[in-house]
Design a protein that fits this description.
The structure is a homotetramer. Chain A is built from 14 helices and 11 strands. Chain A is globular. By secondary structure, chain A is an alpha/beta fold. Chain A starts with a helix and ends with a helix. Chains in contact: A-B, A-C, A-D, B-C, B-D, C-D.
């Protein structure tokens, strides 16, 4: 402990505080955030920049995202978790259409839910519990009523039937002629079909992520596609046709994109396979990510990949030594719209 | 939202699927959040209302907060965690001055940090690790340099000396004449002194929470004051004077306020003693809280009080059966400014 | 437990209090856990059964696991997270050899690390930070020194070179002759080669999980194999040969196993693809899981799959209505050895 | 562990790879945990020592606890959270009786629940949800039935009436004659009364923590006593008598104990006030804690005190520079019995 209290007290009496010599400490005062009626999201993000911990991380995430959305940066976007069922679909589609995403890596589940909404199905606000039922009985009732539950979001099961028809009529037949195709070929064709049906049927919900990717030549990679209803459908179709999926074929194109990128940024929502696959892409490129933003709620201390810090990725050579990276540990349904809105506001000014 | 269910049913009929009768499921489609450059925080909160999980909780929190800030509601505000060192001080002070907080329950730590900033001290952005040091060596270095660390916030230790002088010159002598006083009497006198010194010294940072409470007749309760530097200082002074603190005296006034409240709301940031003490207040009142908002990052499944759901508080009679309550499980330095800004925007419209 | 309720009722009557009629409440007193020197893990698990929250969940997990290890139950084991690098490899291999695991679903990362140890490589205890370095500089240094970090575990990078040679010499050539193979075929051949090299080189560490699976006819499914060094190696080899992997081929065998299982149990460590793929398997079987244990640290409230409760899986028909299921929310490196040791002790008695 | 590095180097040389010079990396291989039927808890803890992350932390916690229980170390034990309602009461009482705890800092809630069990009341296993009810309706029903819920533990409300009688008949009258007393005086008298009534009424559950502390001259400090039913009862009694509690009086004795301790250890279960007050105690002593173990589930990244690392406490001078400290981030109802049983086994050998 410091025994300069006597000195300090004397100096205090004079009203001139003296500061011991400090190397580690640098003068960078915390400001206090202000909350004003009518403030914009960008202004809120600036106020976060005054504050500490999570707020400061979020402010930094806005900074890095703003840099990442610059034209010269090739953005690899990893999307995991239940982001589509929980209402984040439009933001991703808009980012693709505005040219802020160059490569998308996601889960079969997100593509499944994205497609269902494109072709006229709908997710609904639900509840973890229903009036008069326990969580368990509630789920039994939902099953009886033909409704699937994802936390507090419902999906009526008939939409899976609609989705199956969609795949068997609009998507698989074209691919069948090609035999064994890459997974990206499947997602591309899915996007084309979603866009077409969405237009044709006059569906009021937008055509979504896969459609936007198709229309903007943004490849979607989905390494674990079998782990989804989309994958189950593909498998069932493969049993009675020459169609199947090559698990490795996409890695060539993805690696080339990484290889030739001037500057590369990784924007990762959630963890899991999309996160690791996005980061792993740089293992076989001479350079690594220059920018990285991670929005996740996975805890750091489990040793698992999903919560792993981006700094850890440096040891593997996945991030450049001087990369700008930040992780925001909070519910992504809150932070994702916030970070994007604030970054877009910066770019517009 | 989508009104394409007519289309779906038609399509479903063609495929031979029909929508079963459903009790549990009610038609409430998830919308997809939109992130626009220049959108206000209130508009962002509205977009959250379309989405699910954490975003939906946050949207509901804005609704309940808007109701709570109505004039007829007596608001009991619990503030725990490192909210002052991390930049949340101003928002709380502003809410007090605008009349949105009627009773404050907080920790001695928050009052300590609040006072330090009022009288000219300053917290600084720091780091969990410093260049060239491990976390442990970093903390050893900080100790040698006379700097305390709270996560990634620094507090130079000479400010504790300043604080000690402040208490011994401006606060304790008045109380000493009164002998054994209630803790609220201490916080009241502290607020008065903070306001006076802040003005007198022309400190650029605002006078803060305790000062605002003093100037607006808002009592501050601090049951665990001994667990703080403020408490340590009070103890040291008590050893050489007739001054001491009565641990129970405040509960009469607090209980009366709860008893006579027409409608009562609990706004709780963090967990701990402020949370429990705020909720407990209703145990001896005929009514309970009508509104409750909780912003916390404490996990629910530990069984601990801090992460406990507000629904659990119902079993104890702390919440009315039909209370509007919501918990948002995310970093409060992110959610607190957001919820407040959005609620204030609603009230201004 | 206490049978002093008679006394209480008497005493209550004297104080004028009576116990109201209760439907919801049933007499099931909490006991207090005892910690004794020399107690076995099974006895500790019994003590957990007296207690509440996490301890009670863990006790129930031991019960369900004991039932699951019965001969008539087909056990599908999902293994995610950094379970192999963090020392859990042997327990899984032993369970396979003892016949307690019938199907394994895991990540390419776990298979990679498992193989490295089989052929003579070694993971080492490391640190999140090193003496004299920040986390970031530490990772930069590790990269310069050719060491990868997984949280606080190190893996010298030359072992990846050893692994590459192993694959190119012992595994891929055989598969190349078969052309496009299923992923399970790859893991099978990998296990065979690991066993052989481990024996041949006299490696002191055991041959591991894949080897045990090979030697006991336990299929290993790995839907997201591309998301790993094993997958990267497979891809690189596929570029200059006829070898590739069919992403869908395994789902037929896996579905058959699920279809024909008398009783089925799911034991899931971690979340991610192994969890979802294991649970999803039951979507196309007439029955669902009768037993399910989940050991995870992923939080429930994000809406993500990894932390999702097993009850949610009921709504999808993945669990039988009357399935015995329990989740233990704690670090699996602590709970997994504990649950297994306690269950084995029960079976031995 | 493996001494196959010679083999590796040979193999590496053949492949043309060499092990670079390494400073940061030191040879410390991860072993793989083994789970054996009938193994003791101490043996399980040893197996944890092979593994990584949480398991390794737990193993280290056993080591430090073993050192702490040595006779020359003064152990300050902080107990927060719902540890008594969830079945941890007996372990703490036993540790006190065995002389392993010298000072206890806890919450009024734990003392309340401890007393209720001492005098014949009982907590019961309950459920977060009941058959046929939502969580909210369940809590409304519980309230109607007069049952309080703490996560999945029930407490019939008549026991609070029993507790009130106990305090008013056995505890407060003695204190009333002393006027304004320290909080420790209250906990001491409570312990005496609990022991007496427990014996007299032949209650089958043990007399508990406060009784053990009384009988072994272990002081119990409870800075936030007002924040509990015990505190509410004390307040109500103070309204009609000369009795009250001095909030500061205990800090003298506690500080003296810290001051004169040869070696000091802090064992902290949970976070909150007990944690901070225990660590804070060393601020006014020349030395600081030599040993510290923290068992908590509070996440680190919120900046809050409860999850704060013990390393952070070093910057404040609360831990000695060379203190042995470790935190285990997992449900304490699982880790606490485990760590204690393993440490006791070590001491017995």
């Amino acid at each position: 402990m410091s025994d300069d209290h006597a000195d300090d007290s004397a100096a205090d009496a004079e009203d001139g505080h003296h500061e011991p010599e400090r190397e580690t400490f640098s003068h960078d005062p915390i400001g206090h955030a202000e909350a004003r009626a009518g403030m914009t999201v960008g202004e809120l993000a600036d106020e976060y920049g005054n504050a500490g911990v999570g707020a400061a991380d979020l402010h930094e995430a806005v900074d890095v995202t703003e840099s990442m959305f610059d034209d010269d940066v090739t953005v690899f976007f990893g999307l995991a978790g239940a982001m589509v069922p929980t209402g984040m679909r439009r933001i991703v589609a808009d980012l693709i259409r505005e040219g802020h995403i160059d490569v998308l890596v996601t889960t079969g589940a997100n593509l499944t839910h994205d497609s269902i909404e494109a072709i006229g199905g709908k997710h609904h606000h639900g509840a973890v519990h229903a009036e008069g039922k326990t969580e368990r009985e509630h789920d039994e009732t939902l099953r009886d009523e033909g409704v699937d539950r994802i936390y507090n979001v419902y999906l009526p099961q008939e939409f899976f039937a609609t989705f199956e028809s969609h795949l068997r009529e609009e998507v698989f037949p074209t691919l069948e002629e090609e035999g064994i195709v890459s997974i990206q070929r499947l997602t591309e064709e899915l996007g084309r079909a979603n866009a077409e049906v969405n237009e044709r049927e006059g569906v009021s919900e937008g055509p979504g992520i896969a459609a936007a990717a198709y229309e903007n030549d943004v490849p979607i990679y989905c390494p674990a596609v079998q782990d989804s209803v989309l994958g189950l459908q593909a498998w069932m179709y493969s049993q009675t046709s020459d169609f199947s999926l090559d698990a490795l074929a996409d890695m060539t194109a993805l690696t080339d994109t990484a290889y030739y990128a001037e500057e590369a940024g990784a924007f990762i929502v959630g963890g899991g396979v999309p996160k690791n696959f996005t980061l792993q892409t740089m293992l076989v490129a001479p350079d690594a990510y220059d920018y990285a933003v991670q929005l996740t709620m996975d805890p750091k201390q489990t040793g698992g990949l999903s919560g792993a810090t981006l700094d850890e990725a440096r040891s593997w050579g996945k991030l450049e030594k001087d990369a700008d990276n930040v992780s925001v540990y909070a519910d992504a349904t809150i932070t994702f719209p916030l970070v994007v809105a604030a970054a877009l506001e910066r770019l517009a000014n």
